[in-house]
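Deliverable D5.2: sample structural annotation.
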Amino acid sequence: MTFTNKDKMKALAIVHVFETSRPFGDYSACVVLNDGAGISYGINQFTHRSGSLAAVIREYLKNGGQMGREAMQAALPLLSRRTKAAIEQLAADETFKRTLKTAAITREMKAAQQKVAHERYLRPAIEACDQMGFVTALSLAVVYDSITHGSWELISARVNGIIKTTSTPDYEKRWITEYVRARDRWLTDIRRLRVTNYRTKFFLSQIAIGNWELKLPITVHGVRLTSVGDKASEETTSEKGSDAVTATEPSQPLTVPESSAIQAVSAIASSAAEKFDRVDGVVSAITTRRDSVRSLWTTVGGTISQAVWGVFGFVVGLPRTVWIVVAVIAGSLTLLYLYRQIVLGRIRETTEQKLKTAL
């Protein structure tokens, strides 16, 4: 069974939303989680411990990538070691993490991430489905997500011990249902993984309504995926068709027409995402600058008012104690207002960051 490009795109979009909150991935996503895997980077969150991050770096260098080349070459010996000490040492290297984020804008890095993701995750998922006789889009997404996130071999072996008959018509649905339930229990029972059980909750919800073909529209972890041909979709494209897939986020629609090559699809999507990131960066910069200007004028205004009051008090002959006390009060109020502006700016930045994470 060969899955259609649309089936593959659905699986890609779902897992990328799980991994980076974006339908076709965030090439620059770079975090260190508390699961001991070290740096987690890119569209499929390639990690140090799994060896996938090293594979991406090697592919990037092989592609001729120049941005941050020296830093990446220097990090390869550490990346090749998967000991706890090596993982923690590289995870604490802020320069290396900045290098990864910067290199994400290059064609060489995007191509490297796409190739490693396909070879390590998507192709094995398709091969596993073919071997087991699975044909539905939901099955492909479940297997692809498990291979990407981890636990596929462990939990699939458990399920094989429970469901052994492969000749029944409903074998695929029974097996996938039992697998998702077992994986949901496994994720929920492990404290550090419990926060990721939204993945299995999504699949269980689709199984409950019988959406084995993942018919669009569907909402994945807050992101709505629709077909471009869907009347409810507000997106427009010059290549509309029933096989196209649209990923709609709350404030930024992203339209991605189907292509015969998965890499071409990812490239188009990443281009749209980059434009959004640039706009978002400008808005954030304007907000920060506005807070800074307010704080600056508050300081300037307070200083001028204190100077005027001092001169006035001296000219009219007010007792020194009086105008000094008033000046101190005015200065204190100025500092208080300045502090308020700084706190409000931080609150705004934190809120915006939480909103971005939620999206």
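Annotation notes: The first strand starts at residue 30 and ends at 32. The beta strands are 30-32, 39-41, 46-47, 218-220, 223-227, 245-248, 253-256.
The annotation will be released with the project's public dataset once the embargo ends.
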